[in-house]
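Dear support,

We are seeing what looks like truncated structure output for some complexes. This example has two components. We would appreciate it if you could run it in full and send us the complete token output so we can diff it against ours.
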Amino acid sequence: MIESHLPAYIALTFVLFSVLIPAFGLWRSELSHPIAVLGGGIAAGFSLFGFIDVINDGSIRYFFGGWEPPVGIEFVYDGLSAFFVLVINAVAFFVLIHSHHISKREFPGKEMPYYSLAMLMMLGFNGMIMTGDLFNLYVFLEIASLAGYALIAIGDRPAPYAAFRYLIIGTAGGTLYLLGVGFMYTVTGTLNIIDMAAMLPMLYESNAVFAALILMIVGIGVKAALFPMHGWLPDSYTYASSSSTALIAPIGTKVAAYILFRIILWLFGIEITDAVAPISYFVGVLACIGILYGSIMAIAQSEMKRMLAYSSISQIGYIIMGLSLANPWGFAGALLHVLNHAIMKACLFMISGQLRLKEGHSDISRFDDGYRKKYPWTMTYFTIAAISMIGLPPLAGFFSKWYLALGTIDNSNWLFLAVILISSLLNAVYFFRVLEKVYMMDPSKGQKEPTDAKRDEASASMLWPTGILALSLIVIGFANAVIVGVLLDIFPM
Amino acid sequence: MDLSFVPLLAVLVSLVAVVPILLSSSKPNLREFWTILAAAIKFGLVLLLLPGALEGESVELHLVDLAPGLPLALKADPLGVFFAVIASGLWIFTSFYSIGYVRGAGEHKQTRYFASFAVCLSATIGIAFSANLLTFILFYEMLTVATYPLVIHNEKKEAVDAGRKYLAFTLTAGLLLVAASALVYHYTGTIEFTPGGVFDGVELPHTAMLVLFILFLGAVGVKAGIMPIHGWLPAAMAAPTPVSALLHAVAVVKSGVFAVLRVVGYVFGTDVMGDYNLNDILIILAGTTIILASLIAFNQDNLKRRLAYSTVGHLSYIVLGIALLTPIGMTGGIMHIAAHATMKITLFFCAGAIYVNLHRTEISNLNGIAKVMPWTMGSFAIGSMGLAGIPPINGFFSKWNLALGSLEGDMIIPVIVLVVSGLLNVGYFFPILYRAYFKPGEGLEKYGEASPLMVVPIVITAALSVLFGLFPNLFFNFFDLAVDISSTLFNNGSP
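Here is the complete output from our reference environment:
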């Protein structure tokens, strides 16, 4: 009967390891990393097992302590949450393996608190995804956020300022969300998502419900870095230590996007969402602006981490645009992009971390064609991830774009279609700029001969995770029909 | 014999060859052996498909589903085989020529060059054998990416700029193709290439059809060099000459016109094209391109750039033939794919031989070179006269069919365009020959012909141009094949 307890096991694994790490880490600091990897691995294993189980046997509702809602708290482990849990835990597992050398170099002596906080943050993320209760969600959101602020504050000198800024904005977002939950509780008398969803059709066009919807979207939009609530993101991702960024960037905003999916498609349903005003269209337009804004700003950056941070703003826009379309293709495209983007961004941020470790910087304008010789595999993986980001077939990134395009066409939404296409071109601009630097002699410097740099590849603990993630982009590209088949079944309407 | 895996193998052989090519980067002779071996096997595999194609049969292979209900599928139909024979056959000559060229010119990063070349050929054969639009997009984008390292090969400022321009044009085109394909899928529920088109029984408003056609035109017109979106092609002449010869005269640009043919004949269908008057747009664009490109070619002193504009013009011959929507015109267009390929590759080969041997790239410096490079310039004369449409070279033959095709469709203006263009071709090629043969040259005493690795392929491709002009069915029954293909497009799939 292990299956019926799986949701709890996933969450409890992170609780357990967040305690185990200090317990062992105080004794032997170097044990923190292997224990964290073990924890991440166990959680990822459970998630994979659970996802397969949900696909085969249907969703699991887990009542804590046997107390049924609305009295007790439940975890709802259905297709959507199982998918997100699998994505974030699997990616986090690879990032944790990768962070070994980087954490030793970038914040020596602080590994123990770092990994313990990482486990707590993962607990928060997993809890947010699995919980079936809106208030409980807020609690997990704060757990994840507080751990996240601390993780971001470990880093370059401006990192604490960036973290503080994030803390202020993030807390405001959390509070708005909580206010929205309060409104909903007043009109429905419950906090359980499934109960509440059953009651909402009776409250069609209620002002309180409308206000709550707006508050929740704005509040969570801050966490998802939905334009124009993205201001905290670029600094945080740039100045945080490379291992923190690699951990938070691929999954943090995805979890917030998950909440938007849950609220708009499951709790309210697209009809109630759009009952008073075309909210979904409005959210889609914001996503579009974010897509273009993020891409254009990414072109303007010379620091690789900052470029990737802006690119994240743009990519989260794809996901939320797909959500706003509220049709099967858009939905499948958005969820596929959750998976793709988590992998691509993890891979790219991990590579930026490797470069910082080796070169001491990740400033694109100082890249040269020696990198090709020094880091042949790293640069190959970078190229794969970059081409996937641009969205060329057969890599995974192309297919999320293809389904999103089908989704916009189903809604006859030509504006969104154009945005998807234009943004791909902008992606090409900022990634080929890097590839030009790495693979070509610099004509502006009058360089005549290729540099004779010696091979100085990153160590296996970094190369393997990046390599596996990069190659998985090819596998996902060819296997996406299977994945999308599953995702289409999850679509709630 | 079961041939169903042959198309896949034909695509993969050069892709697989990339691995040994990269591994033997320190042993140039071994590395080039892999290229030649892959080219020979590829051509052999394609030839295996030819007898079936001549019978009008197709070999189909469904691999994985790329998206629910949309397979990655290869289909070696007669048109695909026709194109694949040309591309893979000429790759053999280009491979030998490339060896002579890159060693003669002392190019750097030769491994990258040969590896990219092999990927390009895989993509080209993939384009030829794509059974549906999604598979086509995959190989079309693959060709874009694989050509890029060849365009920027010498890594000078000019080449880097050309590479950027190339990507800007082709990536935009790729995105338009994605949008157009998604729309076709939305409207018709299929994206499979079907002779006669996929719009059977689907009524669309005229504007919708027009927008869709323009999207497709933007998507395939870039690689087909239709004005005003041809700008990348002259810029891409910064690439080494064998690249210009095979890719920017045969593989890449012919993939473009091949795509035009697929779109017109297999997506829209000739009936829909005519009913919605979409072919008029194509005729006007192609006619304008033919004339303008020839006029611009006059002004180019750089030999490769003049050839590039000539290519732009001749690609539109093919587009024009397709757009006439008459069986003979279509046949002429298809034949010109082969004819222009053999002639233009000869001319580019000559340009490369002159560059490697004499380090001359400008036409004004070519005085008297026919004395030292008689074989090269003799071949050049054949190729250029063929492009001008002088019998018995194969350029005349396809042009004759194009003219007949426009008369068959009661159109006189295309005939005038063809005649004027023929004169313009004479006009911009003749001065080159005049300088080479009749003007006294300077500083040529110590030079002879280029290396045999280069001269032999030149002479062979020139000879092929003449032989195909005299006997269109001499090898592979090419003319019959073209006639069959074009008749399927006008009889809803039956030959």
